Amino acid sequence: MKLFFYMILMCVCFLPNLVFASVKPVVRMANELYTYNMGFNNIYLSDSDRAVLWRAINSKLLSMQNEGKLPFQLINEVSAGGHYMNELALDSDIYLIPAVMVNSARDTSYSSTTSTYYNSNIVSGISLIFCIPEEDYERGGVSFRMLGMVPIVNSAVIGRTQKSENGRRSLVTRKTPILEAEKASKFISLSKEAIEKQINFSSAMKNLKDPNALFNMDTYQVTNVKMSSPKAQQTFQGQDEKEIKFLTAYNYTAGLQQKTKKIVYPPVNMDNAFANNVVDTMYSLSLDSPNGSVDVGISQPAHKIELDISGANYTYANNIVAYKVWLAKHNRGGEFKELTRGYSQNLIDDGSIDFNTKDMYSRLLMGVAWELGYAER
Fold first, then answer.
1. What is d(CA 114, CA 92) in angstroms, rounded to the nearest whole number?
2. Percentage of residues of the chain with pLDDT beyond 70
3. Which domain, by its residues, includes 149?
């Protein structure tokens, strides 16, 4: 009965246009930033880095609240992790946990006849996770169950200009390796830019014509990413394969949620405890903070989405190098959709190729994944 009441609150939070949403629900935000450990190429974030990002999120939400743009009443609350978990009340409130889901840096270098150049592809993915508290009968205290999330994503490359003076190509410019502090600084600036520009709760609040769809958990999640392309299989192996699959899934999820207003869950990381810690029909997502960790239970989604890195290719002819990737989407209903994205440019003056194939495929896949998600209806 209590879960049914929470589902009504979920409607109010995510679907404010429903006729019964006359009062804004209270949403209590954890007073620190959490992180999800992807397990590969993570950028180190200090306590001060976390504080900077938490303040950016809090400032944005308070500004939206003052402008009347929040569909809920925001209250800054105690930490959701550590010893604070036992202090949370099992009441009708909804909790908001801000979490870094992606903080990735992929380093590459390129050698010409005269110099070696360095790049680092920085990816930021932050999610605002809405939860309800519930009793943890196994360990005592309070745990959480996810209602949905608002994901935002941003990326950039350190060490490469966008365009040369003649406008024909981007240029590698960095002749020294990128330091960890510089990566963290770039990650923070990318995250703050996404927080300021992308947080828009109207994109998470769609008035479903059939409310029964929501009560039946009308939720969406990328549960698998295949790699059927032989060339992609040759390019991405081991940890590289795990990383690009998760980044592809997260970018798709962000595009899907922003365009369609659907209620989404984080993509399943098939090589992480997130996917392996399954009890009955629940997943467990572990989020960490300096004051402790918190587990967020995630129900099986009503709509499971499978992505497939179905193609990858590059060609080199007439002093031009070209890269192309294909990404397909399947769902349980048999629907199939495929998009492609490519990039080409002239070689540098001495004829060298200053792109790493793996790096270029990664950038293209993240871009086409967001585009594929945003193309959904």
1. 65
2. 73
3. 2-374
Question: Looking at this protein, which amino acid is placed at residue 64?
Answer: M
State if pTM tops 0.70: yes
DSSP 56-111: HHHHHHHHHHHTT--SSEEEE---SSGGGGGGS--SS-EEEEEEEEEEEEEEEEEE
DSSP class of residue 238 equals T
Question: Are the C-beta atoms of residues 27 and 95 closer than 8 Å to each other?
Answer: yes
Alpha carbon distance 271, 357 (integer Å): 24
Residue written as tokens 């959709």? 337
Residue 289 has pLDDT above 60, yes or no: yes
Query: What is the Cα–Cα distance from 27 to 142, expressed in whole angstroms?
Result: 17
- Comparing C-alpha atoms, which of 267, 285, 263 is closest to residue 222? 267
**Count of structural domains within the chain:** 1
Q: How far is CA 70 from CA 23, 46, 145, 149, in A?
A: 12, 30, 22, 15
* Cα separation, 263 vs 284, whole angstroms: 18
Range among 13-22, 151-160, 201-210, 363-372 with highest mean pLDDT value: 363-372
